[in-house]
């Protein structure tokens, strides 16, 4: 979607929902900003606090904002104890489905946990954590797949005030070790393995390699997911969870800690323009309020909904909208372990049909993959239970929106694209069927949520008119906002608050349409979104330079029909190394091992120079054009034009 062509797309409505006038939304929205404190005070008061806050927002030391200062709260209590108290003890909280299937494609493992059962499991896990010496403020790293224990341990940690650092199970040993070391985690929780596309991924093996380099880890807890026989367990360091659980009294109750609103609940590492991934820190009270509000406004959760968010808990979407969100509103949710197309491309549709999923949260990449498989697969299933579908992670192209609306939604759903990021803690820009719903448009993110002041500005920080592309900023603090970068307050200021003083800089390009709807266009920095996953080009370049053959590397993202973007590498070899298909494969494998499969470059070009500006910046736009064999554009700032010709020549040869 390119700006400059107002109006943007047609309005879409249907008769299953009440769609309101856009002007009326803006009036309501303006009220929430005008009465900002009263508004958020009202939202926060819907949660149960052990002690009410004294100061809603302390903005005396920007950008170190503090929300609900003096308030005492506990996420595990809100997610579990409170639901049991409210009579949902026998309501199913979690329907978990493992990947393996029988000959008819039916799941071999399904587990259901009621709120009452989950509360028991979380108490046991909290007891185990305490027995292992974990207490308030301690960091624990969680390197687990999509199994119930992942959710149980996160809630258990938050129950006792421990800080979780979840590392996506697709990340490498090196990536895990870096994250453990940065967070200074004393405990690692992992599993023997998990199922992915019919194969066992031996997770403990990778975890062991990481722990060799992770100085802070004293103990490792291992969940027996698969039942692998020959898992090496180190005496005195490694413990099977089932052994630890045998020591726990069956009626154990661990008192939920009365945590300050400001107490960190989790650290989650995410990529930026330079340096290693940063540990984004989120608090307890503010995050809870934001997630709770958006569960209501954006997903409109009702008592009988069955909610399914397909994100992995290794990402922020899994934190906010799998582990915490659904439980804050007492919903029943589905969690699925495996690949979306295993054993066939209709696995997801079969899940929606069997559990009657009504609220569905997924990603544009997944949708584009299913479009490729064809509509026959979803057509084989009754998807009429769906009433709300949202996507997240990257812009949704209008074609993918239309396909989803028609094929999955039967033109009777609300379908939106919720914009937010790891740093925001919760959804910021979205359609809000549970608050005040305005007409949809294929591809837009919609208006900013109530109480959220988002805008698009030019390089000087001035608001731009509709139709003009600019930078997305948030002009006021919001409850779910990050509370810094773990151990690096200066980087926090520099990354988010220095570019446009007083505003939070998201790092995205965006444009407003004539109705004020926001359309996020993509990253404005050197961050890639590969299948919705955030990767820094710098990270991949460092991994490449870590290979003995590589002198210099430059990585750019090139468009991909399914994943939106894939990394492509340009590599200068050290003397004595020979370019060729074998080395290319080796370098791709090297990145895979250094970061994880998601970072693997789709190709590697060998060049004798990396084109740079006179000030030494890699000319990524130019490399992208070369990779795409597109016109080169302005090369006047180029240090050495021969490198362009050479790169292009090589590209031609390598094609
Ligand atoms: C970046 C943040 C928020 C959970 C998953 C991603 C892009 C996210 C959208 C959307 C267009 C989107 C932005 C953002 N993004 N959602 N609906 N439309 N772009 O979290 O890994 O921190 O990535 O994802 O570029 O900056 P993340």
TrEMBL record:
<dbReference type="GO" id="GO:0003987">
    <property type="term" value="F:acetate-CoA ligase activity"/>
</dbReference>
<keyword id="KW-0436">Ligase</keyword>
<comment type="similarity">
    <text>Belongs to the ATP-dependent AMP-binding enzyme family.</text>
</comment>
<protein>
    <recommendedName>
        <fullName>Acetate--CoA ligase</fullName>
        <ecNumber>6.2.1.1</ecNumber>
    </recommendedName>
</protein>
<dbReference type="GO" id="GO:0005524">
    <property type="term" value="F:ATP binding"/>
</dbReference>
<keyword id="KW-0067">ATP-binding</keyword>
<keyword id="KW-0547">Nucleotide-binding</keyword>
<dbReference type="GO" id="GO:0043955">
    <property type="term" value="F:3-hydroxypropionyl-CoA synthetase activity"/>
</dbReference>
<dbReference type="GO" id="GO:0016208">
    <property type="term" value="F:AMP binding"/>
</dbReference>
<comment type="function">
    <text>Plays a role in the autotrophic CO(2) fixation pathway. Activates 3-hydroxypropionate to its CoA ester. Can also activate propionate, and to a lesser extent acrylate, acetate and butyrate.</text>
</comment>
<dbReference type="GO" id="GO:0019427">
    <property type="term" value="P:acetyl-CoA biosynthetic process from acetate"/>
</dbReference>
<keyword id="KW-0129">CBS domain</keyword>
<dbReference type="GO" id="GO:0043427">
    <property type="term" value="P:carbon fixation by 3-hydroxypropionate cycle"/>
</dbReference>
